[in-house]
Amino acid sequence: MKNTVTILMRVVFGVIFLAHGISKLQMGLGNVAGWFDSIGLPGFLAYVVAWIELIGGIMLILGLLTRYVSVLLIIVLVGAIFTAKLPSGLLGNGQSAGYELDLAYILIALYLAVAGSSGLSLDRVLFRKGEQS
């Protein structure tokens, strides 16, 4: 049962981040870079974050390098909290979202970073690991 839940968590988490990456591409990475600039971050980070979300989402769905991708996503999420969401508070301020969902995502990513891919994954096929007892 734990294995099934881990697989579901990894795949759904991957779909969520794949969607975030696609969304940034659809907005236009130049526009996202402009928004990053407007909040005091270097615009090139928009490209980095978008590709981490897009490729990382695909890798999570496939169960490829799950632990490493999860750590990268934790870094992205902590960055989002401290650069964009912290001023809005935990639940948001009515104009922008808070960081409660980011905290939940961090916990999911932390679990995956510790637990690994589990079961149906390319990690298990390629590296013969990921199965936890």
Automatic annotation (TrEMBL):
This protein's UniProt keywords: Cell membrane, Membrane, Transmembrane, Transmembrane helix
Keyword Zinc appears in the UniProt entry: no
Membrane topology note: Multi-pass membrane protein
Compartments (UniProt record): Cell membrane
TM spans (from-to): 7-23, 43-64, 71-91, 103-122
InterPro entries in the cross-refs: DoxX, DoxX-like_oxidoreductase
Cellular component GO terms, alphabetical: plasma membrane
Family statement: Belongs to the DoxX family.
Name of the molecule in the record: Oxidoreductase
